[in-house]
Amino acid sequence: MEEPQHFRDPLAAFLGACGVTAVLAETPQNRFAEVETTVDSEPEDLLLAQSDDLDDDLLPPPADEDDAVQAAREVARTAPDVATLHRLLAGFDGCPLKQLARTTCLGEGPVGAPVMFVGEAPGRDEDEAGRPFVGRSGQLLEKMLKAIGLSREAVYISNVIPWRPPANRTPSPIETATCEVFVRREIALVRPKVLVALGGSAAKTLFATDTGIMRQRGHWVTFDADGHPIDAVAMFHPAYLLRTPGEKRRAWQDLLAVRRKLVALGAIT
Ligand code: URA
Predict the structure, then answer these.
(1) In a mutational test of the pocket of ligand 1, which residue from 137, 157, 240 has the highest number of ligand atoms less than 8 Å from its CB?
(2) Mutational pocket test of ligand 1: of 125, 159, 204, the residue with most ligand atoms within 8 Å of the beta carbon
(3) For residue 239, how far is its CA from the centre of ligand 1 (angstroms)?
(4) Beta strand ranges found along 193-264 (DSSP E)
C-alpha cells in the first residue's frame, strides 16, 4: 500500500500542522529586501517590494498630531449628511496615507441601516475598487451576514481608515487618530441601531480601549455617536477567520448575539 503523502514528506506534514495550505516557492523570499524595479512595475509590486520605512520615505513628514486631528475635526463636523462627509473626506489632504492609495475607500450602505460594520483599513482589492470589504474578507463577511438573514445591501460597511496603508502596514497612531474623526462622524450620520467593530484594531479605536479582541468580543458597550447612544460590540475580523477557521464557532455565537440584539431593538424581525 502506498504511504500517505504526509508520511513521505515530513516538511509538508510540519507546514500543514502550522496551518500552511499552499506553498508558493521552493525558497523563502525576503519581501522586505530592496529590489530592482523598472518603470513598468505595477505600483502595487513596488510597494510590496519595499520595506515600510522606504514606503514612508515617499510620504511627507507626519504633521503634528494635534494639528492633523484638529483639521479633520473642523472638516468633519460641518458635514450634515453622509454624502457631504464623503465628499469632504475624499478632498481631505491631512492624512499622508491618501497620497499612496489609489482610491478613497468610502463607506457604503443605507443611512439608518440596522447594523453598521467597521473594519480597520482597505486592502489591495478595496483600494482598487474604492469600496470596503470586496475582497476575500468581504466575501466571508457577506456569507456571515447571510447566515443571520441579512444582505450586504441592507447593512452599512465602512473602515476606520479610508486609504490603504502601504504594503498593508499597521496605520500609525496619528493616521488612526486623524481618520477616526471621519468614521465617528459617519457613524453619527448613519445612525445604525447596532455598531459592530470588526477586529481588534477597529475595536480599540472605536471603543477607546486597550483590551484585545479575545476579551473584547461579545461584550456590549454603548457607543457615543455625537451624543446619541448606540449599542456596540466587537467581533473577529473576517481576515482572521480565514486564517483561523477554528474560531468560526465563536464568531457564529457573536453573530447570533448581534441578531438577537437587532430583534430586541425591533430593527429586524
Ligand atoms: N479589511 C478591512 O479591515 N477592511 C476592508 O475593507 C477589507 C479588509
Answers:
(1) 137
(2) 159
(3) 8
(4) 194-198, 221-225, 228-235
Q: What is the pLDDT of residues 157-189, one digit of tens each?
A: 999 999 999 999 999 999 999 999 999 999 999
For ligand 1, the distance from its centroid to the CA atom of residue 1, given in whole angstroms, is 47
pLDDT (mean) for 118-123: 98
Residue labelled with grid coordinates 522586505: 32
| Sign of torsion over alpha carbons 30, 35, 41, 47 | positive
Question: CA-to-CA distance for 110 and 120, rounded, in angstroms?
Answer: 20
Q: Can you give the residue range of the structural domain that contains 203?
A: 65-264
- What is residue 167's predicted lDDT score, i.e. its pLDDT? 92
Q: What's the structural domain count of the chain?
A: 1
**Domain contains 162:** yes
- Return the DSSP state at 163: S
Residue 49 lies in a domain: no
- CATH number for the domain spanning 74: value is 3.40.470.10
